[in-house]
Amino acid sequence: MKPSDMTVRIYRGPITESIHRFHLAVVNTDGALLHQAGDPHLLTFARSTAKLIQTLPVIESGAADHFGLGDAEIALCCASHNGEAEHVSAARGILGKLGYTHEHLQCGAHEPYHAPTAQAMREQGITPTTLHNNCSGKHSGMLALSAHLHAAPDTYMSIEHPVQQLMLEAVCAMSGVPQELMHLGIDGCGVPVFGMPIDRLALAFARLGSPAGLAEARASACRRIVAAVRKYPQFLAGSDRFDTRLIEVTGGRIIGKMGAEGIFALTMPEEGIGFVLKVEDGNQRAMYPAVVEALKQLGLLKESEVSALAAYHTPTIHNWQGTEVGRIQPDFQL
Amino acid sequence: MKPSDMTVRIYRGPITESIHRFHLAVVNTDGALLHQAGDPHLLTFARSTAKLIQTLPVIESGAADHFGLGDAEIALCCASHNGEAEHVSAARGILGKLGYTHEHLQCGAHEPYHAPTAQAMREQGITPTTLHNNCSGKHSGMLALSAHLHAAPDTYMSIEHPVQQLMLEAVCAMSGVPQELMHLGIDGCGVPVFGMPIDRLALAFARLGSPAGLAEARASACRRIVAAVRKYPQFLAGSDRFDTRLIEVTGGRIIGKMGAEGIFALTMPEEGIGFVLKVEDGNQRAMYPAVVEALKQLGLLKESEVSALAAYHTPTIHNWQGTEVGRIQPDFQL
């Protein structure tokens, strides 16, 4: 991998203690590169950014309508959520419509991402369940699709299962990557993840936001997903989360999704733009500052929006006592 | 910063998902570079690697003898410890010899690094104190030095305090960096940290292990620190920690210390070698694999020792369900 000169610096006091490098691809709905930094064809995994694309067959198949999933529930299918009460409740709601419980979810359990919720659960001695897993919406959507297809509910995570085959087809079609060239791995939550060049993932996001060139059933599903996430940004991530704030601050002009290992994908539906940024070393602390700074430099965020996102753009670093000891600073020119 | 081509790869399934770059300096007791990778003069903070050097004035001043500190307590002064029962007990022991309690420590409190200990404390509803902070040994040593100097115990973290001035002098003298060129920041635990080129920190470690050229009082303190850590490696870090295992596996031939933000410093007393490796992006997950592989390639670890450290050399990555989904793989040739 050729090193990228695009960096985000970690300052401690007067000097740089560590640096992060990133790669960027910005494309139009034809997949043509509009902007790039580092290696715009870098091969890596889409991780949770793919959730918005994976939700397409849940809608196209008729599963969402059959089970009466609302927009908040559609947004939760696309989420790496915080495990706050409303997220847990919405996941339980989807499962209830299927006649299922949290025991049907195979994503595993972890503490809620939302620290105050996790702390409160600890203090009350409440053990996290699969519903608190940040992927419980995605897994609930997979179970809805599986049930609608009358497929086996217990093997839904296997790549051979009809659910995963439909999701693979959607990710391949939207990104333009043939199935034989799509790299498969296993995610933190046990289901397949998709490895492709970052400009191909950016193309999938450009098309998601601007699906005019796609077949009508797919285009309609794209519009429904974008509308659902715009209406319920809180269900895409949650309190104090960048993905949620980015939609709120831009009034839905930008819809973006983080993934593990420092990847971020976004679409600007009215501009026909897809954008993917990957921090080379996978560290999320550099991702949000780089995304905000890149959007600012490309003229895609207004000054007032950059200001509203300052806590994500140039965060301060505190020590155990709460003293400010450093800061994170984007340091690049596109 | 010029990018380093020395990398550690994070594999997920068949492909590289993220990569880490590192910089390396290996020097003799004259500070001459024996081996290098990336930028051997990279400026960064020594963080907790400096604890072994900072313990010098605790001994040289007579404080350690005056308060009757034993070798396990000296080792704890050098530690980023696990917060296991024996560490907490030893820190309490040092404070007791001063007539102090954990309330005199200003390092702040955090959960023990040792996950089973932290889990047990949660289940029993025990709140962590400053004694559990990984730096409680260092802070206890600072208080011992302060008490011996009859200095104010409540301002011991300030750079103007005699304790910090003596520690600054020791770090400067051992590394050969003049005080006016030493960069100062604030650590996670509130005390000053020292910013210098990595080859200068390596020199401090070469001299720590092979102090024959130093004044007798300092050389004697170096020997006492090395002997203490060799005798009680469990007090330098703890169960399932690399720093402890490296000493155990090599029978004390190599003594190394991790620091936050991916820095590792080691000394080989019999070889007169100091070695510092810094992961550019500060991620610890790449540090241990890079250190073991570099030591292996330089012929400084035997095959059997590399095997005994396999869990740190090429760790596997598991997901929430415990399934193996990837691995960490050093990928460089020095």
Descriptive overview:
The structure is a homodimer of 334-residue chains. With 334 residues, the first copy, chain A, is of the alpha+beta class. The first copy, chain A, has a domain at 7-63 and 159-331: Beta-lactamase, CATH 3.40.710. Chain A contains 14 helices and eleven strands. In chain A, helix 4 (71-77) packs across helix 7 (136-148), helix 4 packs across helix 10 and helix 8 crosses helix 9. The mean pLDDT of chain A is 96. Chains A and B meet through strand 1, strand 2, strand 4 and strand 5 of A and strand 1, strand 2, strand 4 and strand 5 of B. Chains A, B: Pfam families: Asparaginase_II.
Q: What structural category characterises the helix and strand content of chain A?
A: alpha+beta
| Name given to the CATH architecture of the domain at 7-63 and 159-331 in chain A | 3-Layer(aba) Sandwich
Question: Assembly type of the shown chains?
Answer: homodimer
Q: Name the helicity range of chain A.
A: 25-40%
Q: Approximately how much beta-strand content do the residues of chain A carry?
A: 15-25%
Average pLDDT of chain A, rounded to a whole number, is: 96
Kindly state the number of beta strands of chain A: 11
Largest sheet of chain A, in brief, is: 8 strands, antiparallel
Q: What's the CATH class label of the domain at 7-63 and 159-331 in chain A?
A: Alpha Beta
**Largest interface by Cβ-Cβ < 8 Å:** A-B, 49 and 49 residues
**Unreliable sequence segments of chain A:** none
InterPro entries (chains A, B): Asparaginase_II (IPR010349)
Pfam family, one (chains A, B): Asparaginase_II
Protein name (chains A, B): Asparaginase
